[in-house]
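Here is the promised in-class demo. Please do not try to memorize the tokens; focus on the logic of going from shape to residues.
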């Protein structure tokens, strides 16, 4: 007897947006459409090759859109698809959780460009283990 292929939702989410760079890329694209050079400046430490790779993966997964303009020099912009925009609550919670964690552990919040973005528009929410329980 064969079983249909099963997928774990958490594993799927991590496969699509997990890693060191993808959440940061998505966070900055939530704020605005960006050119490659802007993303390179906003995501410190990412190499050109890695950024290109991560953007291609996100595009292949339908999370971002790559718009190429026929002009000289070439102009390419990246933006979120509707599926990508649906990640906003998750990224906002990640920002809040990180801020709470740093504060609880006496660590200084680093003022990074854009790190006061979408989550700041929400009411401040204190995340406790109860919020993370399966309902």
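The designed amino acids, position by position:
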């Amino acid at each position: 007897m064969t079983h249909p292929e099963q997928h774990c939702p958490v594993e799927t989410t991590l496969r699509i947006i997990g890693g060191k760079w993808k959440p940061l890329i998505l966070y900055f694209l939530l704020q605005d459409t960006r050119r490659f050079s802007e993303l390179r400046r906003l995501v410190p430490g990412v190499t050109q090759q890695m950024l290109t790779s991560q953007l291609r993966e996100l595009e292949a997964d339908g999370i971002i859109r790559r718009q190429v303009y026929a002009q000289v020099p070439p102009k390419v912009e990246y933006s979120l698809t509707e599926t990508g925009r649906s990640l906003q609550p998750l990224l906002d919670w990640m920002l809040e959780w990180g801020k709470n964690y740093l504060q609880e552990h006496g660590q200084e919040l680093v003022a990074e460009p854009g790190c006061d973005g979408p989550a700041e528009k929400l009411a401040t929410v204190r995340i406790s283990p109860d919020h993370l329980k399966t309902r």
